[in-house]
Q: What sequence folds into this?
């Protein structure tokens, strides 16, 4: 299929912890049509983390200055550190025609939708919460209390799901990736994004 | 990909005469996921036309009775004959989980959208009106005046295009078919159609 020269689409992906969205996104961004939105943070880089690859590492002063200038699509503070999505990076990628993938939790996603209504919100879920519990437990890396916390968080997130545009059940990884790619193709054909074609035809 | 057991989607396809929608639809309906919506008409069957395959052939009395009972998704009168889309046939196919393809001109399509807002309107267009003219002329079967009439009609239809959900540029047939299939997959993942999953997860 032809590569589009149009502006890209901001694709916001959320999902329960354990739904497999990390794997899905890693697969998707192997395709150079996509750009992965890089977050900014004030926390210290961990070993192996690179500036502009894993995060944009900023000082608190710089971060708060950017908040003041409204330069984030969304931001939040966790454990005394700021985390946010710089607008400029996303906009530059979109202007280059890249579809930008932003992985973010539900409240951040709805913030983004508010100031960027043309973005597409996709929620990835396992087929059942029982399956989610099974996946979390079988990782074997989490204590039972952590699994319980994550299931509890999943139940909270259910109340936000209805504000998403699409829901994708992550049962078989290849299917999930194909479905998300289908959604992106479809979104590129939306009249709200392709209205310029009518003008072009009218102009002939 | 798994066959869905959900209700199907009504996919309304329109496009300029000469845009190639007939070929696109013939290819699509080779897949048994789709059902083609069969129109009803009061005109006489032509040689080779079969009842329930090409049309449902009805008497004027039966047709007007069905209009009175609101049994059409849309209907119109051309050259002293009635043509319409029977609701019941479409609804039966949708309930069986088939995605129903309805090929119809723009005014009929917008009538359908009004009484069946969950349907999906797709407009198929060649890349340019010049290309449309070229396709119409190269058929060699139409007189120049007919080509001019069709181009004139295309210009009228442009004013209705903005009310469609999707616009698909039919440049390469295989791409067009793939794009429409992508749209159908995406539409099946719309939160407005998949809301029941949230209820299911909440119920766990």
A:
């Amino acid at each position: 299929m032809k590569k589009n020269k149009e502006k890209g689409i901001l694709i916001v992906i959320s999902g329960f912890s354990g739904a497999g969205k990390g794997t899905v996104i890693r697969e998707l961004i192997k395709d150079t049509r996509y750009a992965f939105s890089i977050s900014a943070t004030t926390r210290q880089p961990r070993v192996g983390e690179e500036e502009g690859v894993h995060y944009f590492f900023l000082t608190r002063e710089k971060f708060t200055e950017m908040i003041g200038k409204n330069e984030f699509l969304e931001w939040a503070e966790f454990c005394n550190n700021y985390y946010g999505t710089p607008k400029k990076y996303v906009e530059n990628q979109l202007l280059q025609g890249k579809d930008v993938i932003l992985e973010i939790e539900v409240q951040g996603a709805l913030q983004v939708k508010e100031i960027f209504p043309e973005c597409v919100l996709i929620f990835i879920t396992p087929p059942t919460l029982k399956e989610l519990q099974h996946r979390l437990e079988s990782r074997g890396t989490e204590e039972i209390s952590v699994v319980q916390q994550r299931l509890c968080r999943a139940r909270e997130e259910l109340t936000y799901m209805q504000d998403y545009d699409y829901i994708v059940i992550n049962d078989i990884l290849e299917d999930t990736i194909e479905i998300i790619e289908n959604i992106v193709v479809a979104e590129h054909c939306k009249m709200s994004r392709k209205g310029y074609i009518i003008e072009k035809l009218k102009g002939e």
Remarks:
- Chain A touches chain B through 39 residues (CB under 8 Å).
- The helical segments of chain A are 21-28, 60-68, 87-95, 106-115, 129-139, 144-161, 173-188, 191-203.
- Strands of chain A lie at 10-15, 34-36, 40-41, 56-57, 72-78, 81-86, 99-103, 120-125, 166-169.
